[in-house]
Design a protein that fits this description.
The chain has about 575 residues and is α+β, with helices and mostly antiparallel strands. It has 17 helices and 23 strands. It starts with a helix and ends with a helix.
């Protein structure tokens, strides 16, 4: 292991130990404890790669399959000991094959058992290139959309468009030749056929590759017919639920002049922070404000400009999971091992779906070990299960959400990213929203789109003519004291949902109670690293949504002023 990797692993595992809340080990215990966890973390970062003269080369010529080996075998042997791996190869139809007779998508599935009885599972996509194709002799150009680097002028980008395209093309070619993502792209291109119709938004390299490996996984685990199908949201019987619609202050039950005051607060907010944003305010389903304030030096922000909402993605993941709960396919307190066999279903180290969504798994980080793009992410996590202390530490992370995503996928047989589109975004009319990277972050959306998620929650699971889940399931998503489930934890948390309490600036003075909040205590939502906002005030029937790239100066001050102006306008 090189020095950089050792220091990185030491830092990560020291943080892991600290977050667990474990008592500091004695001087006699500390070296061994720390060493075990550093080494385990190092093993989890090891990957199986094709040996083709270049460890990052994921394309090969027709004929024999390349040999697969660990990228750092010395770490694997030190931590897990010597153990054999069985490598099985599959073609594009998931049929097991002995050699690559035709160009196209292939994948290996590797499985082995360590001396301590651990099952190791790994898989990856490779591309068998046509005999006549020599990638190194190509010189493609890749024309990129403008990348908004600070200080970069759009006119300068346009002047150098061809130069940028030439170098970006080189970058793409290197990715194709040397990274698994290149094999995923080439496999996608190989399977394309012109139909004359506009492609579905789910016809992407990522989703195709996810579902290829998912079908292979369900075959290997023999669960292809084990679970009932996840049903699409059903139609409302009777009166449709409220949907977001434009209206007046009177329609929304707001005092005259409220919107004008909100606009002034937003104008000042942008002038002071210089960070543009898109904001939507709706009450009782009536949208009274849906506007963009400010812009960038390199272009305008519009109501159709999608920006990352970061950890608000966790809330979206919880909303999708609610459909599984509502249909009785997965229980919130079910063990993960009920669906993913490498995890235990009994004992103190059992992980449940509630652990995953309430940050009580003891995992850390976001998109570790490839995240959702790792076909057997759950096995990597399970390999270190004995080092976790589920229910004994509250450690904010995205890995629990990805693990829950793997459960949802194996149950329904579809990529969770396809489900996001088909079972949520499309039915809500969220045309500017995308999610295809990770379940703990990475959703891109607009305030107009994302506010529909807010109205869905305000309606307790229904939007317009669609029932996504019942009011009873909605209640099960709300934050609860975790001490009800895990006695040592003091936090309150829900299934992707948290209380969004905004302390009143005059709390404890002028007769205002010490614990006073702006708007009130029954406001739900989630935080965001980009400072995007979704707040749903259940008492006042409010949906507040804001999208932006970052917070900017005095963010909390301006946010509080905005919420106070809104509160003052409530009838």
């Amino acid at each position: 292991m090189n020095r950089h990797l050792l220091l990185l692993s030491l830092s990560l595992v020291t943080t892991w130990i600290e977050h667990e809340g474990a008592a500091a080990p004695s001087s006699e215990q500390a070296p061994g404890l720390l060493s075990d966890r550093v080494e385990m973390r190092a093993f989890l970062d090891c990957r199986l790669v094709p040996k083709l003269g270049n460890a990052w080369d994921y394309t090969f010529a027709p004929g024999k399959f390349p040999r697969v080996e660990w990228d750092r075998p010395e770490i694997v042997e030190k931590v897990m000991g010597s153990f054999p791996l069985t490598i099985r190869w599959f073609n594009g139809d998931q049929h097991e094959v002995a050699s690559a007779e035709q160009p196209g998508r292939y994948a290996f599935y590797a499985e082995g058992t360590t001396r301590t009885g651990k099952t190791i599972r790994r898989a990856a996509t490779l591309f068998c290139r046509p005999k006549e194709w020599d990638g190194w002799s190509e010189k493609p150009k890749a024309y990129l959309d403008f990348l908004p680097l600070d200080g970069l002028d759009r006119s300068a980008w346009d002047e150098h468009r061809e130069t940028i395209a030439a170098f970006a093309g080189r970058t793409v070619l290197l990715s194709i030749l040397r990274q698994e993502e290149g094999a995923v792209l080439m496999s996608y291109l190989h399977g394309l056929q012109g139909t004359g119709a506009k492609p579905a938004r789910t016809d992407t390299p990522m989703i195709w590759d996810h579902e290829y490996h998912l079908a292979l996984k369900r075959k290997i685990l023999d669960v292809e017919k084990k679970y009932p199908a996840l049903q699409a949201p059903r139609r409302v019987q009777g009166q449709p639920a409220p949907v977001l619609r434009e209206g007046t202050e009177t329609d929304a039950g707001l005092r005259p002049g409220t919107v004008a005051r909100l606009r002034e607060v937003c104008r000042v907010w942008f002038e002071r922070s210089r960070e543009p944003f898109h904001v939507v305010v709706a009450r009782r389903g009536v949208v009274v404000l849906d506007e963009v304030f400010g812009g960038w030096s390199w272009g305008d922000m519009t109501r159709g400009t999608s920006t990352e909402v970061a950890s608000l993605t966790k809330l979206v993941t919880g909303v999708l999971f609610a459909q599984f709960v509502d249909q009785g396919l997965i229980g919130i307190d079910d063990p993960v091992g009920k669906y993913l066999p490498d995890f235990p279903t009994a004992g103190e180290n059992v992980l449940t779906l509630r652990h995953c969504f309430t940050h009580a798994t003891a995992l850390d980080g976001h998109e570790e070990w490839g995240g959702m793009h790792n076909p057997w992410l759950e096995n990597v996590i399970a390999n270190a299960n004995e080092h976790l202390r589920p229910g004994q530490v509250h450690n904010y992370n995205g890995m629990g959400y990805d693990l829950a995503g793997k459960v949802m996928e194996v149950v329904c047989g579809k990529s969770v990213f396809r489900l996001m589109r088909e079972n949520l975004f499309d039915l809500l009319g969220m045309a500017h929203t995308t999610l295809e990277e990770d379940l703990g972050f990475s959703c891109f959306s607009t305030a107009s789109d994302f506010a529909r998620i807010g109205q869905l929650l305000l309606n307790r699971g229904t939007y317009g003519e669609w029932v996504f889940f019942s009011p009873q399931t909605f209640e099960s998503l709300l934050p609860q004291p975790l001490s009800r489930f895990y006695p040592t934890l003091t936090q309150e948390w829900g299934i992707g949902i948290t209380w969004m309490h905004q302390p009143h600036p005059q709390a404890g003075t002028n007769g205002v109670p010490k614990d006073a909040m702006v708007l009130g205590r029954n406001v739900i939502g989630h935080g965001s690293a980009t400072s995007a906002i979704l707040r749903v005030d259940l008492d006042h029937q409010l949906v507040i949504c804001q999208t932006r790239r970052r917070g900017g100066a005095e963010y909390e001050k301006h946010l509080t002023g905005f919420l106070l102006a809104l509160e003052a306008g409530l009838d």
